[in-house]
Request: fold
Amino acid sequence: ICAQELSIDDSMPLCVRVLMHTNTELTRSELRHVYLEEARTLRDDLPG
Reply:
C-alpha cells in the first residue's frame, strides 16, 4: 500500500484514506461503514 496520494483530476482534495483489518464475530450484513461529510461519495458501491 502506497502512502503517497496520486494526482487525479477531479479527485477529493485532502482526503485521508485508512485501511483497517479487524477480527469480528459480526456478519458482513451487520457491518456499518462510516464516512464523514463528502467522503461517502468515494464508495458508490455501498448501499445507502
